[in-house]
Amino acid sequence: MAVRLPRGFRAGATRAGIKPSGKPDLALLVSGLPAQWAYAATQNRAAAPSIHRGRGLYATGAPLRAVVVNAGNANCATGERGFRDDARMAELAAFRLGLAPEEVLTASTGVIGVPLPVERIAAGLPQIELTPYADPFAEAILTTDLVPKVAEAEVAGARVVGIAKGSGMIHPNMATMLAFLVTDAWVPQEALREAWRGIVDRTFNQVTVDGDTSTNDLALVMANGAYGEVPPEALFQALEGVARELAKKIARDGEGASKLLVVRVVGAATEGEARQAARAVAGSLLWKSALYGNDPNWGRILAALGNSGARFDPLRVRIHLQGIPLYAGGVLPFDREAASQAMRAEVVEVWADLGEGEGAAEAYGCDLTEGYVRINALYTT
Amino acid sequence: MAVRLPRGFRAGATRAGIKPSGKPDLALLVSGLPAQWAYAATQNRAAAPSIHRGRGLYATGAPLRAVVVNAGNANCATGERGFRDDARMAELAAFRLGLAPEEVLTASTGVIGVPLPVERIAAGLPQIELTPYADPFAEAILTTDLVPKVAEAEVAGARVVGIAKGSGMIHPNMATMLAFLVTDAWVPQEALREAWRGIVDRTFNQVTVDGDTSTNDLALVMANGAYGEVPPEALFQALEGVARELAKKIARDGEGASKLLVVRVVGAATEGEARQAARAVAGSLLWKSALYGNDPNWGRILAALGNSGARFDPLRVRIHLQGIPLYAGGVLPFDREAASQAMRAEVVEVWADLGEGEGAAEAYGCDLTEGYVRINALYTT
């Protein structure tokens, strides 16, 4: 099912031979017009050269024209050579597109500590055919993901398309996650940058798969204005909707995951505490294991809430699982078999009311399976 | 192998029928003399009644005479009834021992959210035979632990004996961990309390199994002075040695673990940052999975260090695994097969120099196995 990019955007990919599997691994996303942009990048101190380079570009405030992404090699912890290789990837992509290197953002994802095969990128870039469709790009940026992740929305005639990859090392600020949202709406860069921070905090930063934070993550939005102006609030809402859909798709496709976990916390003292509390439940290994075993072990939900830093009195907390009340300041009688049965679903929802205030938030995760361990026990050997 | 308690301490256990397995599950630890004591308890907001009660006793500064522990039921999230049941357990134990309830600390570990069967505790307490040996107590406090955990030391003629249980939900501040250290040395309570905080920070709080923080953890030390005075610094060193040995035993016996992980970080800007950094590596699911697979994937170690909050420049970091240099500001050539072979050991050591300052610390963890998932997927059902 081909997803058409917003006006003025084109994308494409090729097999450059970076992934050992021989699958597509080099991709370009290009705007015909200079685009306003905003992004959020990993806070990891061992951030890859592409992240350092991106921060530098971001600081200039200049518009962006293109992104070049390679998958299969994170070009991280590759020493000073890594910085040269990253700059070279930008130069090669800029040359291919007739742009200046400063107009091209780089992104890399894959194994850490292996020198980037720049000569393969040089050979691959001319082969990339640019089309108005998102799909080949979405396919080429995957690593251990099982499915491509694309979402779209319309807003007052303008369009928003988002493309992302997961799916391990997924945890707030940020995940092994690359997300690219593009829109043909016009929006001032300052407003876009300010809105983007909140959108990322409420969506991508609420995804957790394993608590590890990757060295290469970023979430980018580009707005090229090819369609024209739309009400900014409507645009931001559409961007947030697309980001949330991608966040859920990333969590659903977490390494080894068999189901999506959606945690909704209400009644927190603040929205920040609600976000923390929801994330703590989505990230609890004990609860994720219980989720895998269809075990309605709500004690682990309460323990994770208690460990989140959010303020509450356990005697005022309420917990529902798939709509079934399990706890209300104390043990509730419930049909354990029915609750376990209700957990055999593709999406499992935890709802918790902390009984403190008005703060509400969601977080997205998945179950912890034996498959996760197998995938990650044997990644490089 | 029977471990004799320090002078003036006795302990014992019985099968009260709290554990479904029918194994010993109710235990007493008693000092003939009033003991100076110090403890550290979980920071979890959903802390169990036993923790709230212990905090109250601690605040009075009065000496302690005994601990009553039940395993198999955490008496947590059991509503207001849970508080009454906990107080009742203390009263029953005090009656059995001829003490005041305020002289008895309670501890519970096991499943959350199930009312405590106090009548079984009442029936079990009179059956407990008190002896000068640690072993029956060490056996009775276990839950999913595979082996009892006891450690001992001598200091200037006085003795220190420590008894602990793990082994899931193990993460700083605190773990699903109960630890009881007893000594017949004399020490002023104020000095003991101050020293204990640092000892716990450097030992039990550096253990991580799954990042979850339990609702019932505590680490207690009792000093009854039956032997007499010893140099305080020597005593604290002995206590720390025993605590460290127990911490390693807890990590080694983490749920599903096949090996012990010892992470030593040096060259951090501060000791606190070294502790954080070491803990982040010991707690990284990705690295723990690689450890299980004997995969020398040092990129995950670097990524975990980068995620710890400790300051460093990746170009100055060095990483060794089992003494083999893998990374020094960039990729080092190493024999992957030999490194993988070296990981097939009961204890695997990671050493990292952050190149920033003089801060050093250790953390203790274990590998993440398919067994962990199996154990925790089916705990209550």
Automatic annotation (TrEMBL), chains A, B:
Pathway: Amino-acid biosynthesis; L-arginine biosynthesis; L-ornithine and N-acetyl-L-glutamate from L-glutamate and N(2)-acetyl-L-ornithine (cyclic): step 1/1; Amino-acid biosynthesis; L-arginine biosynthesis; N(2)-acetyl-L-ornithine from L-glutamate: step 1/4. It is an enzyme of class 2 (transferase). InterPro entries: Arg_biosynth_ArgJ, ArgJ-like_dom_sf, ArgJ_beta_C. The record marks A175, T176 as: Cleavage. The keyword Hydrolase does not apply. SUPFAM superfamilies: DmpA/ArgJ-like. The record marks T109, G110 as: Involved in the stabilization of negative charge on the oxyanion by the formation of the oxyanion hole. It catalyses: N(2)-acetyl-L-ornithine + L-glutamate = N-acetyl-L-glutamate + L-ornithine; L-glutamate + acetyl-CoA = N-acetyl-L-glutamate + CoA + H(+). Its main location: cytoplasm. Its EC number is 2.3.1.35, 2.3.1.1. Gene3D superfamilies: ArgJ beta chain, C-terminal domain, L-amino peptidase D-ALA esterase/amidase. CDD domains: OAT. Substrate binds at T143, K165, T176, E255, N376, T381. It is found in: Cytoplasm. The active site is at T176. Keywords: Acyltransferase, Amino-acid biosynthesis, Arginine biosynthesis, Autocatalytic cleavage, Cytoplasm, Multifunctional enzyme, Transferase. NCBIfam families: ArgJ, PRK05388.1. Belongs to the ArgJ family. Heterotetramer of two alpha and two beta chains. Catalyzes two activities which are involved in the cyclic version of arginine biosynthesis: the synthesis of N-acetylglutamate from glutamate and acetyl-CoA as the acetyl donor, and of ornithine by transacetylation between N(2)-acetylornithine and glutamate. This is Arginine biosynthesis bifunctional protein ArgJ.
